[in-house]
Protein: MARVEL domain-containing protein
Organism: Phrynocephalus forsythii
Amino acid sequence: MEAGAYGAGKAGGAFDPQTFLRQPHTILRMVSWLFSIVVFGSIVNEGYVNKPNEMEEYCIYNRNQNACNYGVTVGVLAFLSCLLYLALDVYFPQISSVKDRKKAVLSDIGVSGFWAFLWFVSFCFLADQWRVSKREDNPLNEGADAARAAIAFSFFSIFTWGCLTYLAFRRLGEITFQEEYNTLFPSSPPVLP
């Protein structure tokens, strides 16, 4: 990642997809996006089961509809959040104001930290409901792999979103440095002797 000036000095350049895709926060955001798809996809596809003699389907996590609803909701909203912040990451080099960049990074810190917390809650909730699930509620063991996958990827998402929070803090430090630099050394024409 290239260190250096933020703000007007870098704004307005052409978008380089190769550089964009190599940035750590872009890679982590895409991984988080993929993890959210796995979580909500596995719950939606195989998270509802029924006994052979029943017609109504129940959530695989201890027949607790709230567990499935929470997993799907967090997964879908994290998916949309990833898309939103990927778009912001594409637009970020075009933002010329240091203050606007700082606002974007502060929102990234808040949102990433919030999602790390929500994924922690999701992992704990799904794992606990899976732990107390009764064997007789799912005698054919249908969807067990999908349920474990949702739990595992909820756990992995805690770390990807936590790393995104850390990278946003680092980016904030770089922007704050640039803001201080601009305050101390305002742009003025060089004085020639």
Summary: The first strand starts at residue 48 and ends at 49. The two ends are 38 Å apart (CA to CA). The mean pLDDT is 86. The helical segments are 17-22, 24-46, 65-91, 98-131, 144-184.
